[in-house]
Amino acid sequence: MDVRELAKDRLRQYAPKVAAKENLSDEIQELKYRCRSLGGGKKEVPGGTKDPGGRESMLLSCIQKQSILEEELYLTGRWLGRMDRAMKALTESERQLLGRLYIYPEKGAAELLAEELGVDLKTVYYRSGIALRKFTTAMWGGVEV
């Protein structure tokens, strides 16, 4: 297992997982609203006489979807918690390096960082390697990279 590549992959997943956590919360709230709407009101709507179980079927489907999303939200939150703890083990400059190179990458990020920091490109990669190793240790302990 190449732990260095695994760490880079985790860093690349961070921003989408933050967005997913917010989106999952919104979706769960919407499903709760739908469940409340389906739970009350006229019995014949939406199933009517042709499909007397329509409302109940929709309510059960809504509850099932909500349960699945709540589990995913829980797991996403745990994942983000581990990542946040690992990121707290880094200095601000190390977080900046990993953030610009992996979490919010942009074309030519290493060159831009070298220019902003007033160092050569080799130094940016060297410092990011140290930061990546420190992040990897914070994530998984004494795993060698």
Strands, helices and their partners?
Layout: H1 3-39, H2 54-88, H3 92-103, H4 109-117, H5 121-140
- Rounded mean pLDDT is 89
Number of contiguous helices: 5
What low-confidence regions span 5 or more consecutive residues with pLDDT below 50? none
| Topology as a string of helices (H) and strands (E) | HHHHH
Oligomer: single chain
Q: From the alpha-carbon coordinates, what is the Rg to the nearest angstrom?
A: 23 Å
Briefly note the structural class of the backbone: mainly alpha
Strand content: under 5%
Please explain how this structure is put together.
- Helices cover 78% and strands 0% of the residues.
- By secondary structure, it is mainly alpha-helical.
- α1 crosses α5 (121-140) and α3 (92-103) crosses α5 (121-140).
Quick take:
The protein is mainly α and 145 residues long. The chain is built from five helices and no strands.
Structural key phrases:
145 residues; mainly alpha; 5 helices
